[in-house]
Amino acid sequence: MHTPAELSAQHFDSFGTPALVFAAPGRVNLIGEHTDYCDGFVLPAAIDFKTLVAISQRTDGRLVVQSVNYSERLDEVLDPFLDRRFRDLRAGAETHWADYIAGVLWILRQHGVPVADGFSMTVEGDVPLGAGLSSSAAIEVATACAVLGATSFDLPLEKTAQLCRAAENQFVGANVGIMDQFVSCFGALDHAVMIDCRSLQYTLVPIPSDVRIVICNSMVKHSVAGGEYNTRRAEIEQGTAILHLHRPEIRALRDATLEDLDRWGSEMPANVFRRCRHVITEDNRVLAAVNAFQHGDLSRFGQLMHEAHVSFRDDFEASCPEIDLLVELADKEPGCFGARLTGGGFGGCTVNLVAAEQVEGFTQAMRTGYKQGTGIDCEIYISRASAGAHQIVPE
Ligand code: GLA
To answer: I need a labelling partner for 113 at 20 to 30 A (CA). Which of 73, 78, 141, 159 fits?
Structure first.
């Protein structure tokens, strides 16, 4: 990964214009899975992995983007390209890395941001792709901040997060919630961010200094662009609609209790009932976990992570054998308070809360155990909770 100064120099070499550089991080979710689009609670943290976008404005109406990761260059007339790509994606075209950038330009254009003159961009990221660590939110938010910065367009950060989510929903076609884009905007050093996904009010929760967030990548690829993620959302909507019939004030599962589910759950197909039970219990776990963190009760926090994993695996059925093995191995390790599948599910990474002085032994045991059990080399990242999106000003 290049430094921002190197990326800026590369941009200048390619385009002959100086660039502004913006960064936006990926995230790991400590607890609160599939609750965000149910107006519920989540507790993610921004991570040390990010996307950098170097940007300069053009005058010829073109969008020229070079991706360092893919060694590819996109060069199109901006306005017709956005419209064409929107139509192609609706017609079932496969997603391409540049769609996240195009989607953000498409939504910003709708909101009056002057994009028609075009941009040159140089993009590079180190968020592992398809690992459930929100590489897509990182590129969306970095792009939005870059375009807003380059055009000096004033948009509140909360609105920026909402538009990035809308780009992913409406342009890319992944029906995701607000968590990833929000924490990519509002992340803070050494803090997790408890988000109320209905009001978008958030609380910064300090991560105790004697633990580390250890992320184990199962290397089983995960994608939220379509597929199982959207199926789960549809199941949740089906269950919510049944509860709403009986108690109209239930607008989202955030408003429902386990008693509601006990009373009317028999009207749901069994799988829908279990999906709803996961979400309702998960919301309670997030609130309890924040409380545990605030009281320095790491054992309680870890126990809630464990319960969250079991619920995600059995009720939400979003885990896979490789991830379950990672959790099982972690649970046996001294110094590991809790482990669970993080992100959208169906592969990707586990998040582990590990005592700082035991991290080395933990990572070694995880590598060996996972290799023995699956034949796969897992990747392990020890990440500090990091700052949200920002411009990088040259020294
Ligand atoms: C993905 C989505 C988020 C959230 C999680 C599951 O990361 O982008 O909005 O729904 O899955 O918690």
So the answer is: 73
Q: Which residue is closest in CA terms to ligand 1's atom 9?
A: 177
Which is nearest to 372 in space by CA: 334, 326, 332? 326
- With a 6 Å cutoff on the Cβ, whether 176 touches ligand 1 is yes
How is the chain split into domains, by residue range? 4-206+386-392
CATH architecture of 4-206+386-392: 2-Layer Sandwich (3.30)
Strand partners, 185: none
Q: Whose CA is nearest to atom 5 of ligand 1?
A: 344
Side-chain half-sphere of 169: how many Cα atoms within 13 Å? 15
Burial class of residue 395, CB neighbours in 10 A (0-12, 13-18, 19+): exposed
Nearest to 45 by CA among 282, 214, 254, 296: 214
Mutate to test the pocket of ligand 1, among 27, 33, 39, 180 (most ligand atoms within 8 A of CB): 180
pTM summary value: 0.96
- CB-CB contact of 21 with 145 (8 Å): no
Per-residue pLDDT of the chain (395 residues; tens, 9 = 90+): 999 999 999 999 999 999 999 999 999 999 999 999 999 999 999 999 999 999 999 999 999 999 999 999 999 999 999 999 999 999 999 999 999 999 999 999 999 999 999 999 999 999 998 899 999 999 999 999 999 999 999 999 999 999 999 999 999 998 899 999 999 999 999 999 999 999 999 999 999 989 999 999 999 986 554 588 889 999 999 999 999 999 999 999 999 999 999 999 999 999 999 999 999 999 999 999 999 999 999 999 999 999 999 999 999 999 999 999 999 999 999 999 999 999 999 999 999 999 999 999 999 999 999 999 999 999 999 988 999 999 999 77
DSSP per residue over 153-206, as a string? ----HHHHHHHHHHIIIIII-----SHHHHHHHH-BTTEEEEEETTT--EEEEE
Reply yes or no on whether 99 is catalytic. no
In this structure, the number of other CB atoms found within 10 A of the CB of residue 335 comes to 17
